[in-house]
């Protein structure tokens, strides 16, 4: 599969990708190669990765706990302490082998340690492959608030090996698929139709769609690397989606939602708002929303839940001067930025989600 050229690095694929990685390691001649894993990727992915590695450099493994609840500064401090104890210097490098938590957190750790060491992302989940590991966003959560602390800094390379997807539970595959559905909605009807009709469980046929998804994101990031304008379109469904995810993460009486499960709700809500405030026609709104709902389980929201979720919107990163901005659609492939939405319309959007889910 052909590599994708990002701004300062390449996204490489499969066996040829490992050849590129080994060439990079030989050229860079790092003092120590640190591999960051969580307990899941340590068990299911590390051995396979090491078998493909050809290097005489010293290798050290650093393991963190899995899960979004550990994507915080406390975990970063633990990794920084291990790096110091193992004599990491500015010529060391950090390989992030894992899902979005590992690549986000590992990139942030590398950017801050000794004012910056090289890092390489090896995403092992679908979500990380098509979203988290690409585009240079690194960072951690602040309590339940998603990605509040971080910097934009590019890796030396991203290597996508779809064989790792075979280690995932079906729920994690489904979670990552939400980002591919989002790419379809903001990019083109052709890609939307391809993703809508595909089966995320058929890994052999998923590779080319993953590459297209990465290419879509890369195209946007190249035009707007620091999210001043068009890159915000990648947040379609995420304004309410992230607030929903944060709310369900902090409430002990709620079953926690995976990222894609929350974003799927956020996209259905954004579809409704796009019809109410922009020119997305009702037929397209209903068709795309039903397609999204066919992949994900229904989530129940009570009035108090919606009120709390609306309160969390003030922490969204697209906000400016106290105004909450949404990304909406005029049509599939035609996103629009900086849309203000009333609380009344948000409640109406949740009603639409509830009613559509029951049909």
From TrEMBL:
CDD domains according to UniProt: DHQS
Cofactor section: NAD(+); Zn(2+); Co(2+)
GO molecular function, a single term: nucleotide binding
Keywords, sorted A to Z: Cobalt, Lyase, Metal-binding, NAD, Nucleotide-binding, Zinc
3-dehydroquinate synthase C-terminal domain segment(s): 176-319
PANTHER family the UniProt entry points to: 3-DEHYDROQUINATE SYNTHASE (PTHR43622)
Classification via NCBIfam families: aroB
Name assigned to this protein: 3-dehydroquinate synthase
Native species: Leeuwenhoekiella aestuarii
């Amino acid at each position: 599969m052909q590599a994708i050229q990002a701004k300062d690095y390449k996204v490489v694929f499969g066996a040829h990708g490992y050849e590129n990685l080994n060439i990079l390691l030989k050229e860079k001649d790092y003092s120590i190669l640190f591999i960051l894993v969580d307990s899941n990727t340590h068990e299911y992915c590390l051995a396979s990765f090491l078998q493909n590695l050809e290097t005489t450099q010293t290798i050290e493994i650093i393991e963190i706990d899995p899960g979004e609840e550990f994507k915080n500064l406390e975990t970063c401090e633990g990794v920084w302490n291990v790096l110091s104890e193992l004599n990491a210097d500015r010529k060391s490098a950090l390989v992030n082998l894992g899902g979005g938590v590992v690549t986000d957190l590992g990139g942030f750790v590398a950017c801050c340690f000794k004012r910056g060491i090289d890092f390489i992302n090896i995403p092992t989940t679908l979500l990380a492959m098509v979203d988290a590991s690409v585009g240079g966003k690194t960072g951690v959560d602040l309590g339940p608030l998603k990605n509040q602390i971080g910097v934009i800094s590019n890796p030396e390379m991203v290597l996508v090996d779809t064989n790792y997807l075979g280690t995932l539970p079906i729920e994690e595959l489904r979670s990552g698929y939400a980002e591919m559905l989002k790419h379809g909605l903001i990019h083109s009807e052709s890609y939307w139709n391809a993703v809508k009709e595909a089966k995320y469980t058929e890994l052999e046929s998923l590779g080319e769609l993953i590459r297209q998804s990465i290419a879509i994101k890369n195209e946007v990031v190249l035009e707007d690397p620091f999210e001043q304008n068009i890159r915000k379109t990648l947040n379609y469904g995420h304004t309410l989606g992230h607030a929903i995810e944060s709310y369900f993460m902090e409430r002990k009486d709620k079953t926690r939602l995976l990222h894609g499960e929350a974003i799927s709700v956020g996209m259905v809500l954004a579809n409704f708002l796009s019809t109410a405030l922009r020119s997305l026609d009702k037929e397209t709104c209903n068709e795309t929303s039903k397609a999204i709902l066919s992949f994900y389980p229904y989530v129940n929201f009570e009035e108090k839940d919606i009120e709390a979720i609306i309160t969390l919107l003030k922490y969204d990163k697209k906000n400016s001067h106290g105004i909450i901005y949404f990304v909406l659609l005029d049509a599939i492939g035609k996103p629009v930025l900086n849309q203000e939405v009333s609380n009344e319309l948000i409640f109406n959007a949740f009603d639409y989600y509830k009613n559509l889910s029951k049909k």
